[in-house]
Write a structure and sequence with these properties.
By secondary structure, the protein is an alpha/beta fold. The protein folds into 4 domains: 12-38 and 142-205, no CATH class; 46-128, Beta Barrel (OB fold (Dihydrolipoamide Acetyltransferase, E2P)), CATH 2.40.50; 244-445, P-loop containing nucleotide triphosphate hydrolases (Rossmann fold), CATH 3.40.50.300; 456-612, 3-Layer(aba) Sandwich (Rossmann fold). The strands form 4 sheets. The protein has a 7-stranded mixed β-sheet, with no helix packed on it. It binds adenosine-5'-diphosphate and magnesium ion.
């Protein structure tokens, strides 16, 4: 019932044009809301005209003629009992002119403007009235839809009309599902009535609220759509809870050994989160948990211990990172800690030579490797685990939607599903997180390891580059190391790499007594790895890099971060980059080099960064500066393709949406499909993947 078969008289051409507007079924058409409305419900006296607002007048035609000014045009004087205006047409036919003889009555709709001491309308829509015709005014505002070339407004209106008539006959799909929810304030307008009201509002409706997108009917539709999305996300969880997973009884044998060798004590926050994870993994359905922890809060060790829970039960664990660089680092870290415990770690990334890859796949499928670390190559076809108990995704926000879908699908082939742990350093404001990740339990590592000193941050115009270079010399002479991030955002990989290469040469010339390394996206993975190793082993003093080092890289001895073109980066990204330093006990600093003059927003960002090092606080500021749509980033907002709701504008509705979704699932799970069907239609399956 979801395509256009139920609409009579729709041509293939119309279908083609509708597709350009992303309208591919009746529901799309119904939820294709007007941009604005024409008010043809009243006739305005010419003397009462207010300029620059569309309105309708009736008058007698006088002196319609062609004039040759700078442009050839037809002018008409229109007179009613109260005054007169001029109509101007630049495009007209001779028959049009002929039809407008003196004394004819004309109904005219347009936007009056003042020109000198006269009022005129350019290209109004008009209709010549029959001799004694009595004009019946519409009692509805006329919708103006976003449309496309080849699809006239009139045609689109009639299609929407047909869709609305079709909808009248569909009882269930437009059923109201919240009418008996306690605490729903006020009377609920039935769904269909709301749709009609939004498409063709009554003449006496509060027009201003419609224009401001604050009309009750609009808000209820937005609410309903947000509800549909929330429910579809929560359904992922409901389904997941019905699945089976390995029930882990932690005996602590390996964990204890590991802790004994660990050079530090876990923070309370780390221990608390690990308790939550342990409890989740002892259940017979999959854990679905998101761990948020600011940069440097120590998420890796939490991931490692979660792996150990699986391994001490003789099951496998997988750890996935979004960049090869970070995956490599994890591989090293995990190997370093696990090999002494007799736990073998396998490595998987897409660039692996065939022979090596076969070898790894073998280790994984036989279970010889209890822990597997890699990029998303881990979840591609051909990778078979023997008994995967937990899969961990680090920096999950960096994975694309497709990759995440792949990840969840991986499990569905088996009867046993892995526990899922995702980690992110991107703090998302609470209301948003609860919505986007409604299917996940949330943990927060809200404490940094002891002894960390606050990173000092300064913003400096890049005309003072030389001072900075001196600063690098000092820092390195004291045995610490530095990063220099140079990036031309949005430029191609090649250009970025070139910029890094140039900076590298420049720095090497100026700091000839230091060793400067270079890391960019164009290097082979083995080369990248070698450079990174040299940096870790202090064979390199300064690492010049593109943003390849943005996430996860952990070299505690590095204490100076220089970010070039800082004004071009977003707040979240700057915070991530800065987070590469301040990871040990050294006093660290971050220099934000910018090109003067700074724009207002860039200035705000750099100031925020200078004033706080708290990721959650920065996320809050970011939200204020940019609004949630942007904060979520294109990747995430792509997850939620909404028709009319807009997370930036409708944020305030989210708490009530959450309440309603919970109420429905608890009290009327049978109604959930109704909401999903009308908003997500065919996409329901996809959304639930
Ligand atoms: P992130 O949360 O950014 O992934 P990492 O896991 O990379 O942070 O940890 C950052 C640094 O802090 C690492 O060098 C790690 O060894 C160290 N670290 C982690 N937990 C602690 C702790 N409890 N005490 C001291 N240092 C810690
Ligand atoms: Mg990390």
């Amino acid at each position: 019932m979801n395509d256009f078969q139920d609409l009579s008289g729709i041509t293939p051409k119309a279908i083609e044009n509708l597709a350009k507007l992303n309208i591919t079924n009746i529901f799309d058409l119904l939820f294709h809301l007007p941009l604005r409305y024409n008010d043809r419900t009243v006739i305005t006296n010419i003397s009462d005209i207010t300029c620059n607002k569309e309105l309708q007048v009736i008058g007698q035609v006088y002196n319609a003629k062609v004039v040759f000014g700078r442009r050839r045009m037809m002018t008409v004087t229109l007179i009613d009992d109260t005054g007169e205006i001029t109509l101007r047409f630049f495009h007209f036919s001779s028959s049009q002119l002929k039809g407008l003889s003196d004394g004819k009555r004309m109904l005219c709709f347009g936007e009056p403007r003042r020109s000198g001491n006269r009022i005129e309308m350019i290209h109004p829509q008009y209709r010549v009235l029959q001799e004694h015709e009595i004009v019946t005014l519409s009692d509805r505002l006329e919708p103006v839809y976003p449309t496309t070339k080849g699809l006239q407004q009139k045609r689109l209106r009639s299609l929407v009309d047909k869709a609305l008539k079709w909808a009248e006959k569909q009882k269930t799909v437009f059923e109201d599902v919240l009418q008996d929810m306690p605490g729903m304030s006020g009377e609920i307008i039935p769904m269909l009535e709301m749709l009609n009201e939004v498409h063709k509002p009554c003449a006496d409706t509060d027009k201003q609220s419609l224009f401001d997108r604050q009309h009750p009917a609009q808000k209820r539709l937005v609410f309903d759509e947000l509800l549909a999305h929330h429910l579809s996300i929560m359904k992922i969880r409901v389904r997941s809870n019905l699945r089976k997973s390995y029930q882990l009884k932690s005996n602590g044998s390996l964990t204890e050994l590991f802790m004994q060798n660990l050079p530090f004590k876990l923070t309370n926050a780390q221990s608390k989160v690990l308790e939550e994870i342990k409890k989740d993994m002892s259940a017979d359905h999959p854990m679905m948990r998101l761990v948020q922890g600011d940069v440097g809060s120590g998420k890796t060790v939490v991931a490692l211990v979660a792996c150990l829970y699986a391994v001490e039960n003789n099951y496998q664990a997988a750890v996935m990172a979004p960049t090869e660089l970070l995956a490599e680092q994890h591989f090293r870290y995990f190997s370093h800690h696990l090999l002494p415990l007799g736990v073998q770690v396998a490595w998987l990334a897409s660039g692996l030579p065939a022979r090596k890859k076969r070898e790894m796949l073998e280790l994984i499928s036989t279970g010889t490797a209890a822990v597997v670390v890699g990029t998303h190559a881990l979840f591609q076809d051909g990778v078979e685990f023997k008994n995967l108990a937990v899969s961990i995704t680090d920096e999950q926000h960096r994975f694309g939607v497709q990759q995440r879908l792949q990840l969840t699908r991986k499990g569905t082939e088996n009867t046993i599903h892995p526990h899922q742990l995702t980690m992110t350093a991107t703090p998302i404001p609470r209301t948003l997180a609860m919505s986007m990740y409604a299917h996940l339990d949330h943990s927060v590592i809200d404490e940094l390891p002891p002894g960390r000193k606050r990173i000092t941050t300064v913003a400096i115009a890049d005309s003072r580059r030389d001072n900075i270079i001196e600063r690098i010399r000092e820092v390195c002479q004291q045995g610490a190391q530095a990063y220099w991030v140079c990036s031309l955002i949005e430029e191609s990989d090649a250009l970025q790499s070139q910029a890094a290469t140039d900076t590298h040469a420049h720095l090497q010339a100026q700091l000839s007594d230091l060793r400067i390394g270079l890391l960019h996206g164009r290097l082979k993975s083995t080369e990248k790895d070698a450079v990174m190793q040299d940096f870790i082993n202090k064979k390199i003093n300064v690492l010049v890099a593109t943003t390849v080092i943005e996430v996860g890289v952990d070299v505690p001895n590095a204490s100076l971060m220089i970010i070039e073109n800082a004004e071009r980066f977003g707040l979240a990204q700057l915070h991530q980059l800065r987070g590469r330093v301040g990871r040990g006990e050294k006093q660290s600093s971050c220099v934000l080099l910018y090109k003067a003059p700074l724009g207002d927003l860039a200035k705000k960002r750099l100031e925020a960064l200078r004033d706080t090092t708290d990721g959650f606080e920065l996320a809050r500021i970011d939200l204020e500066i940019r609004g949630p749509g942007e904060v979520l980033g294109t990747k995430q907002s792509g997850d939620m393709q909404m028709r009319i709701a807009n997370l930036s504008k409708d944020l305030a509705l989210l708490p009530d949406v959450q309440k309603a979704a919970h109420w429905l699932l608890e009290n009327h799970p049978e109604r959930v499909e109704i909401v999903l069907r009308r908003w997500l239609g065919n996409a329901v399956e996809y959304a639930n993947a």
